[in-house]
Structures are given as C-alpha cells and as structure tokens.
## 1
Amino acid sequence: MPTPAQAIRHEYLRHNKKFPHVWCPGCGNGIVMGALLRAIHHLELSKDEVVLTSGIGCSGRMPTYLDFNTLHTTHGRALTFATGVKLANPALNVVAIMGDGDATAIGGNHFIHAARRNLNLTAIIINNSIYGMTGGQYSPTTPFGAISTTSVYGHIEHAFSIAELAVTAGASFVARSTVYHADLIDRLIEQAMQKRGFAVVEVISNCHVQYGRRNKLGGAVDMLKQFKEQAVTVSRAEKLSPEELEGKTTIGVLVDRELPVSTEEYKKVRRRAHESGDKV
Amino acid sequence: MGKATKKSEPVTDTKDKTPSSRKKKYFDVSFYHDWCKSCGICMAFCPQKIIGTDSKGRPVIEDADRCVGCRFCEIHCPDFAITVSDRKPKRRINDV
Ligand SMILES: Cc1ncc(C[n+]2csc(CCOP(=O)(O)OP(=O)(O)O)c2C)c(N)n1
Ligand code: SF4
Ligand code: SF4
Ligand code: SF4
C-alpha cells in the first residue's frame, strides 16, 4: 500500500514536467500545492471533474505541474477564465490559484466582482506580500514601511487584508491559514471546495528570496517560525483587543454563510423569463 | 452541484484499542534526494530533532526509532521529497 504522500505524488503530479519544480528552496508555494492535492485526494474527486486556473507569477506555475484540467492564463485573469469555465459547465469543480499581486493588483477588480457575484468557485490566494516572480516589487499586501525593489527607502502605502476584502465584497466562505499551518490549509481548501458559493482561502506564505531577505526576516525556516508565532485562531482573536491583535494573523474560518449563488440564480432567472411568456 | 460532495468518510480512527496497541509504533522516513533542495524546513521543525544533515547539507535521519510519525516533515516539504511510512515488521532470518 502506498502511503498518502506516495499516492499523491504518483497520481496527481505531471511526471512529464521537470521536477524538482521551479520554485526556490523552501518556497511556500510547494507547501500549498501539497495541501491542495491532499484536499482533492481526501474529497475523492476524479481528476476529470477538477479544473485549476491560474494567472502569472511564481504561484501561477502551480497548475502546470498538476494532472487535472488546467489553464495557465494571463496575469490577473485566473478568475475570469474560471468564471467562463464554470458558466459553460457548472458541474465542474473550479479552483483559481493566485498570488497576492495577481489576485489583488492587476486582478483586483475581477476578484471583488467574483466575490460580489458569489460565483460557485474556489479561490486560493498565496499571499507572500510581494511580486515574487518579477523581482520583488511591492504588491497591495506589502506592509507599510517594508523594503521592496520599488520601495527601497520604505513603503509609503498601506496594505489591505485580502480576506477582509473578500468578506466585504460578499463571498460565502472566507478563511485564512499560513504555510506553517499546513494541515489547516488542507482542511480549509476541503471546506472551500465543498462550499456552495464563492469560497476564498488566503494562505500567508514566504517569499524569503524577494521579501524576507530585504526585510531582514531571514530564510524560509525563520519566516515559518514567524508565521507560527504571529498566528492566532479565530476563537482566540475574538477575545483580544485591536491593540493585542496588532501584528497578528488570524487563522481559521472567518466567514461561512449561506447566500444566493449567481451560477444557480442564473438558471432560475432563465426559467422565470421563459415562464413569463414574454417574447424577448 | 458542481462543488465537491464528500463521497465516503474514510476511516480515520484506525487505532486498535486493544492493550497490545500501546506498544510503541515505529516509522521509516525516507528522502528523495533528487527532488530535495536542502531548504532546511524538515530539519528545523521535526519535533523529535532527528533529522540531521550530511556533508552536502541534505537531510538524513539520525535515529528513525525515535520518529513519532507526526508527518510534520512530510506535509511541510515544499518539494514532495519526504515519505513517512509505518515500519513493516522485520522478517526473522529463518522465516521464509
Ligand atoms: C499584463 C502583465 N503585466 C505585468 C506582468 C509582469 N508580472 C509577472 S508576474 C507579476 C507579479 C507576480 O506577483 P504575485 O501575483 O504576487 O505572484 P508571486 O510571483 O509572488 O507568486 C507581474 C507584475 C505580466 N506578466 N503581465
Ligand atoms: S521568488 Fe519567492 S515566490 Fe518565487 S519561487 Fe522564489 S521564494 Fe517562491
Ligand atoms: S523539507 Fe524537503 S526540500 Fe527541504 S530539506 Fe527537507 S527534504 Fe529537502
Ligand atoms: S514524522 Fe515527525 S517525528 Fe518523524 S521525522 Fe518527520 S517530523 Fe520528525
């Protein structure tokens, strides 16, 4: 009997691609990829009913390594392609995998409107606070004061929270984890893929090469230790004051609610139009 | 429709509750060095501190008997280079 790790490697990786993968040693993208595969494996989905879409970025490379129906698309458009796939065939399980720049800078508009429409999709956002692939420019989640190649004397803008943005925009399910909490990522992705409605999983990840190093946060191991120390669970965060939550990362399910889902409403509105007898 | 529904709940509690099951369980940990990038994550976070490095900085198991099978190393390896498996009972020499 193969172990679960062996089964995942054999079944879901595209062995005609070059391994080890392209990511830097210790990059959190690989940890998220493992969690995604364990979640799909645990849900016993057939590979044919899963569609992975991504944009451009280090994180965007993920679907190219994975043996599902995959679309490696243009920067910021993982969700647009995912929307098209879902509308064409609502029976498919569609997951968009994005970086923070991909999802919230160039793709920010698509992201908030996908959440507002509450499409029946899953969005995984690997938030490493930087544009990794292009050499470390600041992204919408780069903290105030941080050093990047486009903020060499300290960043003068403020970061926003991806998860809170998704909640405000109307997503049915919003959750957060960090790459240190890998088993939590498995569970959150599993819940998100089962959720009726737009489901967002934000994973705080390490780009020690483009972000950690410049900001004196150390390497992959150091950054994972920081994620461990900074994390507070949702239930514990409820008992803390805003001052105490400063510099902390809340992990777990932030929102899980039942809302009308546009992919289902679309079917209903077509029926209503048909039954009205109007000649349109 | 179109999102996952759990088809069957896998048996999670496989632990045998009989007294003999309290006997220590052993695990084997193997590294696929062709994929490992020596990132240091497995060595740093193993709760038993049994993953050391060889002269090239690659991970090696120093004392497999002390592995508790937590799989922290396996699920945190970004390169799918670790396998933790239940140790199979060794055959006795004349047990053919
Ligand atoms: C239309 C367009 N604009 C800009 C780029 C250049 N570009 C490639 S990846 C990237 C940002 C990647 O950052 P992020 O989405 O955070 O992903 P990461 O690499 O950190 O995983 C940019 C700006 C592009 N490929 N296409
Ligand atoms: S540049 Fe950063 S995000 Fe890209 S592979 Fe390297 S560590 Fe990962
Ligand atoms: S975590 Fe994986 S890639 Fe990193 S040193 Fe250990 S085996 Fe190698
Ligand atoms: S399974 Fe746990 S105890 Fe065993 S080597 Fe890996 S991290 Fe260490």
## 2
Amino acid sequence: MPAIALQNFSYAYNHPKKVLDNITISIEKGSFSVILGPSGAGKTTLCLAVAGAVPHYFGGSSAGKVYVTGIHTQESSMQQLALTVGTVLQDYETQLVTMTVEEEVAFSLENLGIAPEEITQRVEEVLAKVGLTGYEKQAVTDLSGGQKQRLVLASVLATNPKILVLDEPTSALDPEGTHSLYKLLSDLNQEHGITILVVEHDIATVLPYADQFILLENGQLILNDTPENVLSFMAKKQIFAEAIPPLWQLKLMIEELTTRQFPPWHTEEEAITQLGKVLEEEARKNA
Amino acid sequence: MQKIAPITKLALTIFVTIWSIVLQSLPALTALIVCQLILLAIAKVGSSVYKGIASLFIFAAILAGMQYAINHDILLAAITASKMIAMTLVFFILLATTRMQDLSAALVLQCHIPYEYAFMLTAALRFIPDFLAESKAIQEAQACRGYSPQGNVLQRFFSYMAVIKPLVLKAVTKSETMALSLELRGFGSRKTRSFKNNVTLALQDYAMLLSMILFTSYLVIQIY
Ligand SMILES: Nc1ncnc2c1ncn2[C@@H]1O[C@H](COP(=O)(O)OP(=O)(O)OP(=O)(O)O)[C@@H](O)[C@H]1O
Ligand SMILES: [Mg+2]
C-alpha cells in the first residue's frame, strides 16, 4: 500500500477552472518526493489535497480519490487525517499560535486530548528531534526564522505523523537555515521512515535528498519520475526549464553535444569530481 | 502569585475593579494601590512590567492634571487618578503572573467558555508583536516610496490609510492562514481536548477567594 495515492483526482476551488486536472500519482512509503512547477501550477493545492483541507476546508468541487496510508481522505475528517499527515504551510509565522516554545508543541497534543503527563514527555522528545532543546520557555516571537520553522515542524511532528507535507518550507530562510532544515527532513526520512512530500522551487537544494520529482504545470501532472529523468525531460521539452540548476544545465548540455553520459549529480561535489575527471581526460587527449 | 490558580486571579481582578469603583476615600484607594504593588513585588515580575506601570502612573497624573484644570478640585482629581491606577494595576498583576495558556484552560474548564473563544484571547496576545513589526515594515516600505505623513489633520489621516490598508489586508490573510493551520493541527474537536497544565484550586485559592468575598461584603455593608 503506497503512503499517498491520488486516483484521477481533479479539483476546482469555488470557480469553474480546474486547479488540479485528473492527477494520478502513487508515492511509496518512506520516499522523499518533491513537487515542482511554475507559479500557479497547483503545487499548494496538491499539498492541501493530501492533508485533506481540499476539499474538507475549502469546499469546491472534486472528482477522483485521494488516499493517505489507505484512508480515503474525503470519507475521513481533517482531525483524523491530522494524526497521519503533518502539514507545514508556507507562512510558518502564522502557524505559531502560542506564547512559548513548549506551549506550541503542547497545543498540538492538547488538540488530540493526550494526557498531561504524556504531553510533557513528548514535548521534550520532539524538541530534541528538531534541535530546540533548551528553548522550552523561550517566547515564540524571539526565535529566528529558522528556529520558528523548526518549531512549526516540531509541533507537527509531536503527533507522530507517518507523512510530512511541506509547502515551500525554506522560502523565508537563509542558505544555512535551508540546508539544516533539509538535513533534518532527510534524517526524519532515513531514520524514522517518515514519508516526505515537499514543494521546493530551488531544485539544487533538494537534489541530495529527493528520490522522486513530481512536475506539475497548469494543474496537470507532466511527469512523475526520478530526479534525473524529470530534469532531462524538463530540458528536452523546455518545460519549466528555467528552474533547472545551472550545473545540471551544463551537464545536460554536455551530454547533448557530446556522446558523454554522466551519472546523476546530487551535489556540487559530485559534479566537481566528475567534471574534473573529464577535463583531465581531455587534457591528456590533447597532449 | 504564580502558584495561585488563574481563576482566583481572575476573581481578584473583578473584585479589585469593584473595590476601586466602590471606594471613595483617597487613603483607602492608596492602600489598595500599595497592596497591589506589594503583590507585584512578591511575584517578582520582570522589569518590562514596571516600565508599563511607570507609564500608567504618568498617564494617570496627566489625567488628574487635566481634571484639575477643568474643575479645580484637587481631591476629586486625585481620587479619579487613583481609581484608574488601582483598576489597571490588577490587570498588570493578572497578565504578568498568569500564562495565557493557563488562563484559557481555566476559562474553558471552570467557566465553561467554549475553547474557541478562550483561544482567541491567547492568540490575539501572541500576534500583537507581529502586528507591530508589520506596521513598522509597511511604514518603512511606504517611506521608501516617498510616503511621509505631513500636512493638516485630514491629509495626515488619508496618508495614514496608506499604512493601515495593507496592514488590515495582511491581517485578514493571516487570520485565514491561521484558521487553516489550526484545522490542520486537529484543533476544534472539543470533546477530546486536554490541557497540559493543572489549573485546579488549592487551599490558598479558597482562602483568597473567601477573604475577597468577606472584604467586599464588609465594604457593601459599610456603605449601605
Ligand atoms: N483559496 C483559493 N481560492 C480560489 N482559487 C485559488 C485558491 N488558492 C489557489 N487558487 C488558484 O489555484 C491555482 C493554483 O494555485 P496553487 O496555490 O495551488 O499554485 P502553486 O503551484 O502553489 O503556486 P505558487 O508557486 O505561486 O505557490 C491558481 O490559479 C490560484 O489562483
Ligand atoms: Mg504555492
């Protein structure tokens, strides 16, 4: 059973335009998937569909089905789904609703009616997981952007969801904050087996972690494949090609102009080593 | 003070407000103010609270000055100012010594106020700093685009609208996002809700409540 499955799912908000159009995707348990696509493609809406907010919260009209860990979202409730899917919205600031760090995490647990003794223990555990131990009593407003983002993540993780959905979680973070957030997500993915679905416009930052890319455009699923296949497809068909990381543009160009084929580049280091080898070979040939 | 149940402090707030209205003599009001200041000192509140209190006193002094200028009755002016201080101080005590989360837990569990309403109180307080930061940012952004509040009152009023409109729009979008995120976090099923903190009444609470009731009765008997 896949962690997330959409079957011919279509959706329109309260106006006739289809925002998601006949989408069928299957996301395996424990995978790290990234949703890509230009602005207005329906990325946020897809996240909300997995969380059940579409259509439970937004109304509108839908067709087809969405399953999370086998639960048909439309036949469940948002509260029930909150136990399985943890969602981090783009505007993390607004998702923090209490005065202090520990209260924020406790709030999620109180909503579910967890006993007070257990709350104390779980708050401690989950703050440790996101690296906020020692900040328990700190005022939420005094945290840095990266820390706030971690706190949102902690408050979502507190309920032990099997799936994490994050909509552009790093759009307000600096490069360092971005890097450490993805490192954390990758740990949660690798060590705790949490399925991760994330919207990210900076492809280079997710390449080291992602095992699947989902490319959307105008509400349609263009391609759902490994990162390298989706990137070459984007370059070949010139779909959302401006988002291809510069190093990959170079790689794909070399591959097209020569007969040379590189293995996928997940990090800059991999690119550098492989390009270094090529340049050495060329130099030897020319000598 | 921090050990006292939120509900007791809420009762204290209400009683002190009643006393400030009922009491008419300057010594009695002064005594009430001094008692409250002692309570604050016992509670060991932070320096920001004292700053707030200092501005309260200045504000009350200005108020008294204005009243004196109007009707030349220095005693009445002093009494009005003390009443205001006495009433406002108790809110300082309540807010400085009670965590909002506990207050809302008390309102829900003991006063049977729906959680959604009690929650609004805490959320509003949480967003005040954000709101202030935002209005400053918008003012700066407008300033960069050549906005400066000058001219007569009317002109100023209209140019302030330039700051207020985006602020209100942002606040509306924010509250929408917040509502969505609350739903996503399983908020709203009151049947199953729990509270991490214990807000039940202890012996000292009953003692305080009893003495407050006795004191109020005594005041009422004295007057009528
Ligand atoms: N609450 C809403 N009500 C009505 N229409 C909406 C709503 N939210 C989004 N839309 C519309 O749905 C379409 C897809 O929006 P969505 O937010 O899913 O795109 P996105 O891929 O996340 O874009 P971005 O990269 O800008 O965040 C857009 O045309 C948008 O105008
Ligand atoms: Mg979006």
## 3
Amino acid sequence: MKLYLKIWRQTNVDSNGSFQNYEIDEITPDMSFLEMMDVLNEKLILEGVDPVAFDHDCREGICGSCSLFINGRAHGPDTGITTCQLHMRKFQDGDSIVIEPFRASSFPVIKDLVVDRTSFDRIQHAGGYISINTSGNTQDANTIPIRKEDADNAFDAATCIGCGACVATCKNASAMLFVSAKVSQFSYLPQGQVEAKDRVLNMVKQMDEEGFGNCTNTGACEVECPKGISIKNIARMNKEFLKAKL
Amino acid sequence: MALSGLFLVVFLTQHFLINVTSVFSEDIFNKLSHFMGTNPLVQFVLQPILIFGVIFHFVMGFYLEILNAKSRKNNYSKFSGGSNSSWISRNMIFSGGVILVFLVIHFIDFWIPEMNYKYVEVLPEDPNRYFEELVHKFESPLKTAIYSFSFIFLALHLLHGFSSSFKTVGVDSKYYNLIQKGTFLFSVIIPAGFVFIAIFHNLTS
Ligand code: HEM
Ligand code: FES
C-alpha cells in the first residue's frame, strides 16, 4: 500500500506545531497502525530527519499509552479499540491519513503526537483509591459477599485503562467517562463505601481544576472507549455527587 | 441547566394543554386564558419565575458553551463528530439559538401586546378576547410557517435535552430505557401538537 500521511509536528510544549506531509510505500494490510509509524520513522531516521514522537508501550490494548487522533477519530476508524489494535487493512491503497495528537487544554502536547496526560493521574490521586492496608494481611475474597451484578459492574468500570480517548473525542473535552469509571469501580463495592463521599467530591473537584469540559451526554465517549465503559457510569456519578453535596 | 430545562418542559406541557383547547372549544380556551391572564398568583409569582427560568437557561447555555470551548483551545483539523454522536446532541446551542429567536418573536407577538393591554393602557378586561387574538395571529401564512419551523428546532432540542437532563441529575440505569422512550414521545408529540394548532387556525380562519 502507498499512503499519504499528514502528521502534526511540534518541537515542544511552547512551540507552535504544524502539519507535515509524508509519503510512505510498502505498507502491508497486516501491519498494525503503530508498525506503519515505525516504518515511517525508520525511513525518517535514514534520511536524517527527527522521527515522529508518539506514545506506545504494550501494543496489545492493555496499557492505554497509545493515543492519536486519526482521520477525525480517537484511535482511528473503528470503535472499541486502541490505536495499537488498529490495522492497516482498515485503509485503502492511496489513502490520505491525517494524524493529530489528542487535543484538550488539559492534555498539552509535549512533542509531535505525544500529550501530557498527568491530569488523569492527579484526578486519581485526589480519591481513586481505598486506604485499607491489605499488604501482608489480605482477606479471603469470599468473606464479603457481593452481588454478582455489582461485582460485574465494578469490574466493567475497572477495565478503564485511562487512555484519554473519551476526552479526545468529546466535543467538550470532558473527562466525565474516565472519572465516573474510576468512581464506580469502588462505589459498587462495600470496600469503597467508607470513603465514597470524599472520593466523588474530591475527584470531581480535581477534574474541574484541571480544566476539563462539562458533560452534555453526547455519548461519543462510550463509542470510542476501547474498553466499552458505559455512559451510565456518568449518570451514576452525578447521582453520587449530588447525594454527597446535599 | 438540567433543572431549568426540566422546569421549561413542565411549562411547555402546561402551555400546550391550554393551547390545544382552542382547537375544540373557543369557550374553554377563553376561560383558561382569562384565568392565566388575570390570576395574581400566575401573573406576579409564576410569570416572573418563568421569565427568570428562561433567561437563566439560555444564559447558562451560552456560558456552558464558552466554558467547554475553552477546554479545547486548539481544535482538531479533522473531527468526525458524526461517527460517534448525533448532530442534535452536538448542536444544542444552535437549536437553542433558534428557539431564542422564536421566543423574541413570540414575545413581540403575544406577550408585549398583552402587557400593554393590561398594565400600560389598562383597557377593560374582556374575557372573550383571547380566542380571537390567537386566531388573528395565525391568519398570516408566513407567521404560521415561522412558528412551525421553530417548533422543529424545539423538537430537536428536546430530543437530546429531555433525556440528557435526567442523566445530569443522576437518574441512572434502571429507568434508562423508559426515559429514552418517554423523551422521544414527548419531543415529537408536543411540538407537533403546537404546529398542528397553528396550522389548524391558519386553515380555519
Ligand atoms: C431560549 C433559548 C434556549 C437556549 C439558548 C438553550 C440552550 C441550551 C443548551 C446550550 C443546553 C445544554 C446542552 C446540553 O446539555 O446538551 C440546553 C439544554 C437543555 N434545554 Fe435548552 N435552550 C433554550 C430553550 C429551551 C427550552 C424552551 C426548553 C424546554 C421547553 C429547553 C430544554 C432543555 C433541556 C431539557 C436541556 C437539557 C439539560 C441537560 O442536559 O442537563 N431549552 N439548552
Ligand atoms: S500501546 Fe498499550 S494500549 Fe496501545
């Protein structure tokens, strides 16, 4: 396959970036999108050009590192996947592909396609934990009975890998899907009840301080979420938040 | 946003129920309008609350839009919003804007003459004037068309807004499907009903 790439290049946080055009040949449909980027970078290195910086780690859809906004969509033209799970068979020979970083004021671009998502870490630090010390004295899991439905819902919420696709694709750059998943994974379980009130208040406060937008329930986030986290978590968090406030 | 929106939905329902009587009974419509127009509780308590609710809602709407735009200062060069969300849900400020323009026209048409009649010129109250005033407004096909066009946008606004407001106030999964269905029925039936009333009077006048 021959492809025409239009890629965002930016030297650092303070510089103004711009798009650069690249042509790339000999891409096979079986390559992953990130392998295609590797091929491009090898070519650039041989030409003495600075390779394109992009985030990646596990390359199997579990770490949440890979980002990229491809042809107008977070993680490219498919639903429920990360960019490392996207394959070139989704494109045609001769296609033009626009590759941009995730864009949100709370995700500043560090270099090229790499954005700083530590705002998510700070939200987690504000309350996304339970303070029970379990090291060395772990309880048997079956001593606290939990309804199957609640256990499943908590688990589903806990599958969030914090990739930020929800923010990237939301027209308001809202982080509500991420935060609500991190709140729900505890609030469904008895272990999460002790700190439930402070957790939701503090995490929402931190989210607002980071400058994320407000949710207007467009539902784009749950479509693009690689883990299929449901937008119902957002309504649930709104309920918890209001209850904690009142 | 959600609470003021829901409040407006309640008002809209009440407004519709009164208007719809004009289709089958001139007398009932006049009686209800006379009551609404002269009852001090409605005039001096509910009416100011309603005006406040409307202003609060659209001012907050514009503020929300500005705030959310700030959350993404650098826009994407390519953004396929349609691939994962509905046009209506992404353009509430647009449908809301059309409704706002309509409300201004509506105020000039009905509310300002009404206030003038009652509180400025202080004309003697005629309990049977309301129906004629209503019919008179819809004699013009242009006015009926503008009116009907605006209600299409109200329907669009509600198709997203009504169910969205329940999510915002935290009504979660159990009632999800019920809310989706209820939103659809309400958002289609009520605006369509208003359009029907307008066209009915245009054709029969
Ligand atoms: C006066 C002009 C209006 C403007 C500028 C306006 C604007 C907006 C905006 C920007 C939103 C937020 C978007 C969102 O949450 O997705 C919204 C939500 C909403 N609007 Fe309006 N609107 C107007 C009139 C109305 C009217 C007349 C009604 C009802 C009869 C209404 C009902 C709602 C509802 C129920 C919501 C949902 C609130 C939520 O999601 O939390 N709006 N409006
Ligand atoms: S690189 Fe780990 S999820 Fe894509």
